[in-house]
Every structure is written in C-alpha cells, then in structure tokens.
Amino acid sequence: MRVTYASAARRDLDAIIDYISLEDRAAAERVFHAISDSVDRLGDYPNMGHVGRIPDTRELSVTGLPYIVVYEVSAETVTVLAVFHGARDLARAMAERSKGMPDK
C-alpha cells in the first residue's frame, strides 16, 4: 500500500525536526528516522495503529518517542494527516487545523 503525507503533516514533521535541531542535530536526525520508519511500516501494516479520536482516522504512537501520527486508510493509500507531540490536545489541534484550508 502506498503511503503519502498531507502537506500539513510534512509541515508538522519539519517543525518538529527544526525545533529539535536547535539543540541537538543528531537527536533531530534520530527522531526524523524513527517517525519516518514508523510511517513507512504503515504501507505494510495500515491497521497497526489504533482507532483515532477523530472519525475515520487511526493513530500510531511512535515507539520510544512522544509523537503520534494521525492517518487515514483508503483502498490503496495510507495518508498521514498530522504528526503531533503526545502532550498536545489532539482533537483540538485537528479541529483548529480543519478550520483552515483543505489540505491533502
């Protein structure tokens, strides 16, 4: 199954990596690879995350890190919708995001 990122999810990932890079570039690279590897596995195991708090989504916790990947599964594609720190109010963040322009 193909895995794609919504542009908002790409921006999320870029912001996470940029923030961590301010203090520790090597740590930022490790976080990037951990998130990317987790997302890549969704292509083979699209249901490995749990049912999401947002209708029609699933959520994947990144092992060993405080990040959550929000995604949706269609017949042929897994689309990553967001990457958030686990301390964020996910439902609120997604609701705020949906008030903006459609982003897929």
TrEMBL record:
Entries under InterPro entries matching the protein: RelE/ParE_toxin, RelE/ParE_toxin_dom_sf, TA_system_RelE-like_toxin
Gene3D superfamilies, A to Z: RelE-like
Keywords recorded for this protein, A-Z: Toxin-antitoxin system
Family of this protein: Belongs to the RelE toxin family.
Superkingdom to which the source organism belongs: Bacteria
Name of the protein in its database record: Type II toxin-antitoxin system mRNA interferase toxin, RelE/StbE family
